[in-house]
Write a structure and sequence with these properties.
Length: 323
Amino acid sequence: MIVVDRLTKRYRNLLAVDDVSFSCHPGQVVGFLGPNGAGKSTTLRILTGLTPPSAGTATIGGYLYRDIPNPAVQVGTLLDASAFHSGRSARETLRLSGQIMGLPPERADQLLDLVGLTPGESRRRVANYSLGMRQRLGVANALLGDPSVLILDEPVNGLDPAGIHWMRGVLRGFADAGGTVLLSSHLLHEIELIADYIVVIGQGRVMAQGPKESLAGVPGSQVRSTDDAALVSALAAAGLRCRPSTEGGVYVESSTEEVGAVAAASAIVLTELRSAGTGNLERMYLQLTAGAQRGPAAGPPGVPYPAGPNPPGPGMGHPRGVA
Ligand SMILES: Nc1ncnc2c1ncn2[C@@H]1O[C@H](COP(=O)(O)OP(=O)(O)OP(=O)(O)O)[C@@H](O)[C@H]1O
């Protein structure tokens, strides 16, 4: 279990991390989400012992990273995929890491296979890798020691949609097996696909946190019909709140079942009916981080979301190590 407790990091006049608290439980994939410069990397660097905090603590399984015996087999980290020695191949990189951890050379080959780097690619120099290939190598390196905790900084950066899908599978499988995953990103949609608990950070402060579904609110419906005016009247008459959708058509603050029932009862032909997904989450993210975003603030004004404690997740008490 990862516990970040009232963590603060000051660089001269800049509060890079400001009284940040959250926790990640075994079985959970926690997304640490925030715009550029929000303080994500600094928090992860403190967590992994690379930067000392100004105040507060960040522990893994109750230990400071530096106090964990043989940390590489307890905590897998990927903080900078571009940091691998460019003159070595992926295979050499992993074999060297494995040697330091006391692992047999075959372990490196297993991991290369797992992350989808082909034997040919694995023998090429890292200097010639694409960003996505480096990320795959980084994930392989993080998983090499069979850790119970993963800490990954921007791991989906540079991955194509298939790569993001793959990453989700790897991390979901890891968490479902009782592992703890903390990953950062400045991209909401990527975190949304992968994480099941989200901590939103902006200007060094936690602005919201909670299970993805609760942050997203009750999902509404996106609907179009051959007669939207009649549909809106029917929805209003049935007591369903709706408004013109930013995507065109109508957004209804109700489930697709309720909307479909109203349309059927009013004999209105629907041409589209689907869950509006996590549009609420996007609005919330843009709203919360508006002051911290670079460029013009986006998103409508609304009610701020409170930061809340992270309730215990499933599978607490990881049997394998420091989780
Ligand atoms: N060593 C340092 N010295 C001074 N300021 C620093 C240092 N490291 C980070 N900062 C500052 O702290 C703030 C937070 O940086 P951090 O790298 O943690 O953000 P981030 O959320 O990871 O951003 P990004 O998504 O762009 O990677 C930034 O303003 C950054 O310039």
